[in-house]
Design a protein that fits this description.
With 441 residues, the chain is of the alpha/beta class. The protein contains 16 helices and twelve strands. The chain has a six-stranded parallel β-sheet with strand order 3-2-1-4-5-6, sandwiched between helices. A hairpin with a 2-residue loop joins strand 11 and strand 12. Bound molecules: nicotinamide-adenine-dinucleotide, the ligand O=P(O)(O)OC[C@H]1O[C@H](O[C@H]2[C@H](O)[C@@H](O)[C@@H](O)O[C@@H]2CO)[C@H](O)[C@@H](O)[C@@H]1O and manganese (II) ion (MN). The ligand O=P(O)(O)OC[C@H]1O[C@H](O[C@H]2[C@H](O)[C@@H](O)[C@@H](O)O[C@@H]2CO)[C@H](O)[C@@H](O)[C@@H]1O binds next to helix 7, helix 12 and helix 13. Nicotinamide-adenine-dinucleotide binds next to helix 2 and helix 4. This is Maltose-6'-phosphate glucosidase. Keywords: Cobalt, Glycosidase, Hydrolase, Iron, Manganese, Membrane, Metal-binding, NAD, Nickel, Transmembrane, Transmembrane helix. InterPro entries: GlycHydrolase_4_CS, Glyco_hydro_4, Glyco_hydro_4_C, Lactate_DH/Glyco_Ohase_4_C, NAD(P)-bd_dom_sf. GO terms for molecular function: hydrolase activity, hydrolyzing O-glycosyl compounds; metal ion binding; oxidoreductase activity, acting on the CH-OH group of donors, NAD or NADP as acceptor.
Length: 441
């Protein structure tokens, strides 16, 4: 079996050690000869790089390993680019979340004005990474987690339409794990799902077991009472803010009980509730800096100080397993059915063919084939048309440097109450994002 070479772009990410652990766990089915890290922040990447160097040396010394900020070194001789960059890092995520709250509008990493601001920062650097890949390893595939995936995907569709990039999200598989828990199944992989929507904006319309039995009725009964909380009677181990999100799915489901919702729909259907329950001075970015970032970097420091990764506290979850499954599906032509963010092209019959939608695809060595969804209901179609227009306007604004288009994008977002509030938020975001956004005229 051919051994693959992988570069992780955003080497200093909190998710990098998890991906390394997952790659090591799956060497039998997805053999690796080389792992490289690439980041534009040498200092941040060095800690994760040094710790992973020790881990790899102990667990798989045959795998060549290096980390660098030099694009030529990073992108030469690779088969897969696994990208998860955060342009502006947590400091800018904090701004994205706090600025809209000044106007009682929700502040979120990928939804509403925060997601729009993040999108405007991310398009350029993602295109730069695609160009590095195509220059130094033209046959490679880029598997992209970098958010906001919906806007990034539309940006790549417009600016690099023939590039070998696949955009993905781990939220549906995270929810599917919970569904499997609710149903008492061993793994989400025992379910075959039909799902459609935009990224962080979708619905399950059909879920069956391997024998073809409909699992939706049992799931609906549970979600109607408990949302996606698997065992409501037990103590919850998930962070409280995520726990609230999984519980709130109960209310999101009540609005449209024919399907099961992605948790992110709460931001669009209950924005007033979100604003009311958000501390404008301490948002999710603060929580992540105080917990995940602190813990991952402390774990890396421990490995470096002790000179061994024997008892290291790195962990891997769905995020890691999903991207490794995707790489494996391409490398080994597994024809796995996976949710990907792809150009609609008629897969959702009554929806814009140029929209980037999240739907099941069959993945193999030639890339992916889309599963046909057919017609979607009016409620979902209406919401998606509004949201996809926001995403398209953001990309249009980035390409043409248009203040007007970005103002329209913010105005059209279901999370923003009026054009005047949209303008005030936009003007604050322009100041905060100086140096990251193209100049708008
Ligand atoms: N698609 C999904 O479902 C999903 C799931 C989880 C995380 N994510 C995304 O993964 C990314 C990483 O998340 P995190 O919380 O670990 O962030 P993080 O800040 O810990 O890591 C991001 C890394 O990207 C680097 N970076 C920023 N700009 C860069 C550039 N232009 N070139 C190279 N490197 C660059 C930073 O220096 C940093 O080390 C984010 O975009 C996040 O939104 C996506
Ligand atoms: O607030 P954060 O940074 O903790 O999470 C934001 C991301 O949330 C989703 O990813 C989750 C995933 O669903 C869960 O299973 C686990 O792997 O953690 C991830 C990150 O915490 C979402 O899909 C991402 O797009 C968001 O960036
Ligand atoms: Mn996601």
């Amino acid at each position: 079996m051919k051994k693959s070479s992988v570069v992780i772009a955003g080497g200093g990410s909190t998710f990098t050690p998890g991906i390394v652990l997952m790659l090591l766990e799956h060497l039998e089915r997805f053999p690796i000869r080389q792992i490289k890290f690439y980041d534009n922040d040498a200092k941040r990447q060095e800690l994760i790089g040094k710790a992973c160097e020790i881990l790899l040396q102990e667990r798989a010394p045959e795998i060549a390993f290096s980390y660098t900020t030099d694009p030529e070194e990073a992108f030469t001789d690779v088969d897969f680019v696994m990208a998860h960059i955060r342009v502006g890092k947590y400091a800018m995520r904090e701004q994205d979340e706090k600025i809209p709250m000044r106007y009682n509008v929700l502040g979120q990493e990928t939804c509403g004005p925060g997601g729009i601001a993040y999108g405007m920062r991310s398009i350029g650097p993602i295109i730069e990474i695609i160009d590095f890949m195509e220059k130094y390893s033209p046959d490679a595939w880029m598997l992209n987690y970098s958010n906001p995936a919906a806007i990034v995907a539309e940006g790549t569709r417009r600016l690099r339409p023939t590039s070998r990039i696949i955009n993905i999200c781990d939220m549906p598989v995270g929810i599917e794990d919970r569904m499997a828990g609710i149903l008492g199944l061993k793994s989400r992989k025992e379910m075959q799902v039909k799902y459609y929507g935009l990224n962080h904006f979708g619905w399950w319309s059909d879920i069956r077991d391997q024998a073809g039995h409909d699992l939706m009725p049992r799931l609906k009964e549970h979600v109607a009472k408990h949302g996606y909380i698997v065992r409501p009677e037990a103590e919850q181990v998930t962070e409280p803010s995520w726990n609230d999100t999984f519980a709130k799915a109960k209310d999101v489901y009540a609005v449209e009980p024919d399907t099961l919702p992605n948790t992110y729909l709460k931001y669009y259907l209950f924005p007033d509730y979100i604003v009311k329950h958000t501390d404008p001075n301490h948002t999710r970015a603060n929580e992540v800096m105080e917990h995940r970032e602190k813990n991952v970097f402390a774990a890396a420091r421990d490995v470096i100080e002790q000179g061994t990764a024997k008892d290291c506290r790195f962990t891997a979850d769905d995020h890691a397993s999903y991207i490794v499954d995707l790489a494996d599906a391409i490398a080994s032509n597994t024809k796995a059915r996976m949710l990907l963010i792809v150009e609609n092209g008629g897969a959702i019959e009554n929806f814009d063919p140029t929209a980037m939608v999240e739907i099941p695809c069959i993945v193999g060595s030639n890339g992916y084939e889309k599963v046909c969804i057919g017609k979607i209901p009016q409620f979902q179609k209406g919401l998606m048309e509004q949201q996809v227009s926001v995403e398209k306007l953001v990309v249009e604004a980035w390409i043409s440097g248009s203040y007007q288009k970005l103002w329209q994008a913010l105005t059209l977002s279901k999370t923003v109450p009026s054009a005047s509030v949209a303008k005030q938020i936009l003007d604050d975001l322009i100041v905060a994002n100086k140096g990251y956004w193209p100049e708008l005229k």
